[in-house]
Fold each of these.
Amino acid sequence: MLPSSKAEALAFVRSVTITADGFGAGFRRADPYEGDPTRWSVLGRDCLWRREPLPPQVRAGLTREFVKPGAGGKEAARVKVTVTVHESVTAADRDMAVSLETSMRCPEQWLSTTERIRRLWSRGDSHGGMRAAISDDDLNETGEYTSGDGVWNGFSWYKYRLGPITLSVTARSGGGETEAEEAETITGVASGIGLVGADIDRRGTQLDDKGAGDE
């Protein structure tokens, strides 16, 4: 059954298997590897992302980061994976709706005082034939990322809902990659997302309205 307490939910998100090589050859754990499980990312009215305490409708969330070091003058590629347990399917649905709205509200966003993403294009596919087989709802977003040095590289964001659980993944391509190398990174990230989603499904939770204790 779905974790019914914050402690059980935190144990659940920690139990989800996420391996570095699942995203492709060369990836390894970043340092730091895990984020603060008592906080999550919120996009402010000023289009700046901040880490804020978890709201009451979120039982637990955990972010892990992976990096593929650059070589030969190339920048590192990075992947962040966040698994979040909401109190119900309805709460998770609301979170998906807010996520879809962010790129329309803020086509250019600040990740920090120097890091930015821009030219964001989003697609939601809750019922269509392109929906991922592992999810009940999914969103995809693409754009460009800069660390503040004036060079813009590829940025991708994926978010899936499996019952009351959301899986969010962001990927930043390494600067200096060829088109083929960037495509390989994107393909690897997509494969890694499938592995994580399948593991969430295997773990078990009965991701349906009844098991989720939906409103």
Note: The longest helix spans residues 179-203.
Amino acid sequence: MSTTRPSPDRDARRPEEPAPRGRGPGRWKVALVTLAVAALLGAAVWVVLGSKLLVVRSVEVTGTSLAPRDRVVATAAIRLGLPMARLDTGEVRDRVARLREVESVRVKRRWPATVRIAVRERVPVAVVARSGRYHQFDRHGVAVADSAARPPRLPALVVAAPGPSDRVTLAALGVLHGLPDRLKRQVAEVTADSPATVTLRLAGGPTVVWGGADRTEEKVRLLDGLRRTPAGRTARTIDVSSPEVVTTQ
């Protein structure tokens, strides 16, 4: 009886033991992909930070009427040709915000080459005559502009030391700011000796002793009602500083 033995060659090619493959080409592919990605990233960084493709070429200013555009641009101090990505918008904003006419400001990049400065200016609400000039103050007591001629339609502010840190100034301007527009337009002068002694002189009408800046709606309602009465129409002075006891003279 004869015995058949498996062929050694067939044994060596069993499926569970695949022939080893070379690993050289796989490593080269990984290295090439890595180099390509690095090159692309380097090119992107160069375009953004080093090339002349994305640099500041113009500065736009919006929202200005009191502050001249040229002064805003000069104060912003943005260097043309600076890469857009290197522009510190916070520093530009802080510089422009120091202008007295500016209440707030936003600085934005408009790719590829423009910087936009959007200004919100302070709004003059009263005028102070001082040293031969007329100084316009906003509701926070900041002097935002001055001129040799008196600006129209702004009431005169008469206080001892006008300014943003003066409590009397802030009280007088606070009363003015709180008035409804229809009444605010009638005010020719606002005076105060203390935060609780604000007085309004109405154009073509009575002087109104207002008192402090509290209870505005109640005082307005009482003033409107009294001015519709015969006594209110002929009064030279109306005192609403204490709404519980309104008096006329």
Note: The first strand starts at residue 58 and ends at 62.
